[in-house]
């Protein structure tokens, strides 16, 4: 009897896991939007809201497109014609918008990234795309910072990476304490940036000094 019960429990667990892994259909997603509209207190059948579920699902496809992109495919092409250049490469003011995973409202800001290449460099636009890949997911700013630097460090294998992200969170500005204009800053360093405080200072100095 125990063996039968264990078998049934394993089967039920497997079904639950398969159900959790299944991506809902577009129709199910649109139905969920209609439910939320009704829960908010409006009528999803009124004229102005009839097409809203379709629009929201299309918007979600764009806003959360980062789940469907492989970071390694973005950073896998590098260029070796850099002469004897072996110093810091910085891309600053990479604008992004993401969504807080706790309330699903936006946080908007800029990422600043620097790295020390080893013989080869990556296209500058690819660095901006890495930011977008991770920003277009449900996020916390801390995790976003960590994911960006981990991808740069593990795929490019440079001598070091520095990432600074600054953003305003609408979950703090629009609700709760409602403090508009508050900015959150997160940083993370690897390699020479982590091990040599002077390189961290140089990164911050370049970031501030280049501003108009």
Low-confidence stretches at least 5 residues in length (pLDDT < 50)? none
**Rough shape?**
elongated
Report on the biggest sheet.
5 strands, mixed
Record the strand order, biggest sheet. Answer: 5-2-3-6-7
Calculate Rg over CA atoms: 22 Å
Quaternary class: single chain
Instruction: Give the helices and strands as they follow along the chain.
Output: HHHHEEEEHEHEHEHH
Mean pLDDT: 90
Strand content: 15-25%
Percent helix, as a range, is 40-55%
Number of strands: 7
Distance between the termini: 76 Å
DSSP helical segment count = 9
The computed structural class is alpha+beta
Descriptive report:
- The chain is α+β, with helices and mostly antiparallel strands and 212 residues long.
- The protein is 48% helix and 21% strand.
- The protein is built from nine helices and seven strands.
- It has helices spanning 2-21, 26-40, 52-63, 71-75, 124-135, 141-156, 170-173, 191-195, 197-209, and strands at residues 78-79, 89-100, 106-116, 121-122, 138-139, 160-169, 184-189.
- The strands form two sheets. It has a five-stranded mixed beta sheet with strand order 5-2-3-6-7, with helices on both faces.
- Helix 2 (26-40) packs across helix 3 and helix 5 packs across helix 6 (141-156).
- The radius of gyration is 22 Å and the shape is elongated.
- The N and C termini lie far apart (76 Å).
- The relative contact order is 0.11.
- The model has no long low-confidence stretch (mean pLDDT 90).
